[in-house]
Amino acid sequence: MSKSSLLRRSVSALTVSLLVALSVIAGGVSSAATLGASPGGVSPRSAHDVLQRSDQYPTFKSLDGGLCLDVNMVDNASQTWVPLTVWDCNFGDNQRFANTTPGGTSCCQLINQASQKCMDAGDPGNSGQLFNGQDVGVFPCKVSTPTNQNFRYQSPPSGSLGYAEIHASQGKCVEIRVNPNNPTAQPGVGTKIQLWDCNGQPWQQWKLFTL
Prior knowledge:
With 211 residues, the protein is of the alpha+beta class. It has helices at residues 3-9, 13-26, 32-35, 73-78, and strands at residues 59-62, 68-70, 82-83, 85-87, 97-100, 109-112, 118-121, 136-139, 152-153, 163-164, 166-167, 172-176, 193-197, 206-209.
């Protein structure tokens, strides 16, 4: 791991507390009123805002920058495995995920509602060992829920204001990729998602939002 990555991952617990406080000031509670604008007020942006919105399933909003998990549907039209990124929250179905428990020894799959694909770690077809820095995207759901499609959103702990980790297998969590050239900066739209050892930092903290 690079020195710059180590720098960002060494942020103290004080940083987490400050970001949680800022989230409250900026409107970090799960209601459309607190977010400040109705979904119809979101300005169109490429493929990310063209989908009809639904309140049936939640979206995942990050504590680090306030952006939401997003599937680019233009990429989805031509690619089987599509990388997840963060984008301005718009409550389109490309930002909404349903949780399902298919049974067996695995726990859960998170299914993107626009693509109808499952959250998936690594290259298409990979189902083995997970590693730090591994890409996270969406891929057609597998009946057996292999290791790389096994994700569980944790119950937010007391005092977290509703933020919690998305756990993968083998002690990994879903996080926003760190910019190696500016590791302390908040992420911008289009920043990719990866796996890393769970560490409780803001870039691993997500909140369920519904309208």
